[in-house]
Amino acid sequence: MGIKKLLRTFKLLRDQPLHGQAFVHETAVVDPGCEVGQGTKIWHFSHVIKGSRIGRDCNIGQNVVIGPDVTIGNRVKIQNNVSVYDGVTLEDGVFCGPSMVFTNVYNPRSYVPRKTELRKTLVREGASLGANSTIVCGNTIGRFAFVGAGAVVIHDLPDYAMAVGNPAKIKGWMCRCGVRLHFEDGRAVCGACGLKYQQTDNRVSEL
Hints:
single chain; 207 residues; mainly beta; UDP N-Acetylglucosamine Acyltransferase, domain 1; 6-stranded parallel sheet
């Protein structure tokens, strides 16, 4: 395919009607049938595959692949070089750091078809996934959980958990504003924003 024809193809895909007012870079591809919310920006060389839905005010970095049939909430930030595969759901306010990794097949082989064996991954509202972290499929990352850079998550994480290492282990708790919490007698007050929390049976909730 010549460069002029390639650019025309990009333009046709870029100019298709989107849901609301969104920005799609001229090198990005949004397949027909996708939904992109108002205020969302999709940057260089990214590809949104058929059946995917992206909410409002998201920022999709360079060289990002989304889909097929992926749902992404509002105000989600996906940094460069991330693939969000079929079976992964990102709720509102999720942050995906540069080059972090999702999987959707637990035991892949190139010569064994396992498209019907996808294990779903759910990243709940406000969670942050650090640069180069890996989320093994079949797990849920709780609301406002914080996964450190390079961590490998192999099990569910509860709300507000801070997990680091390989395999990832819970080393503390984070406020929804991203500041570490310090508990005394099961209670904590965020030193940055003042939100109050309680800890019960290794679970944290807001008061």
